[in-house]
Amino acid sequence: MSAHRSASADRRARVEQMRKAEQARERRARVLTLTVSAAVVAGLVGFGAYVLNEESEERQREEAAAKAPVRDEKSWDAKELGRDHVTQTVAYPMKPPVGGDHHQAWMDCDGAVYKEPVPEVNAVHSLEHGAVWVTYNAKAPKDAVETLEKKVARTPYTMMSPVGEQTGAIMLTAWGKQVTVDSADDPRVNQFLAKYVQGPQTPEPGAACTGGLNGTGK
User: Fold this and answer.
1) Is 44 part of a structural domain of the chain?
2) Percent share of the chain, pLDDT over 90
3) Does this model's pTM top 0.85?
4) Inter-axis angle of helices 142-153 and 187-196, to 10 degrees?
5) Same domain, yes or no, for 79 and 55?
6) How many angstroms separate the first and last alpha carbons of the chain?
7) Does 90 map to a domain?
8) What is the pLDDT of residues 71-115, one digit of tens each?
9) What mean pLDDT do residues 134-142 have?
10) Where is the composition biased (Basic and acidic residues) (predicted)?
């Protein structure tokens, strides 16, 4: 009887030992899971903070660029630029025009990329609505044109088209403002867009950039 009780006690002791070992393994697993989870969360928080900080710095750079003067920019007195609606062709004194009398219909300018020249009298109306018009001629490198097309396509209140008669290979135009740039990665491209897309020069801020002509005559 004593031997039986001893064997039972040994079994209970082994079972208890196994149970404690299992509990220890579970505790270690929980600690490891919590540690990994905390590390992942900390990493995500840190990455999120990094992204937010980068975005904040980028906004600050854009705001600073929008306040700074654009190098070699040309300006026209807005008071001297007509704003009447006309039905006839207008002989603008500059290519591309920076403002003046224009047709009552504007060119769609919500990131519109036109492969063919657009009517100036309609493009000028888009400028009046706060659009920036990116233009190029045959001297512009093909890769620069493609880069600018992608930039314009993702930027509201912009449009792009060829203007063969312009003097510069790549030019950016807003109402009363114009600059010729050296290349698609010229920092003045982003600066001009940040400064003049719906900028303070806009005669009709908030006016539509959709619902006008779309390059097909409609």
Assistant:
1) yes
2) 66
3) no
4) 30
5) no
6) 106
7) yes
8) 999 999 988 999 999 999 999 999 999 999 999 999 999 999 999
9) 97
10) 7-26, 58-78
- Residue where a domain stops, chosen among 44, 67, 90: 67
Structure tokens at 105: 């219909």
Report yes or no on 22 lying in a domain: yes
pLDDT at 63: 65
Number of domains in the chain: 2
Shared-domain flag, residues 46 and 110: no
Going by C-alpha positions, the residue among 163, 170, 213 that lies closest to residue 192 is 170
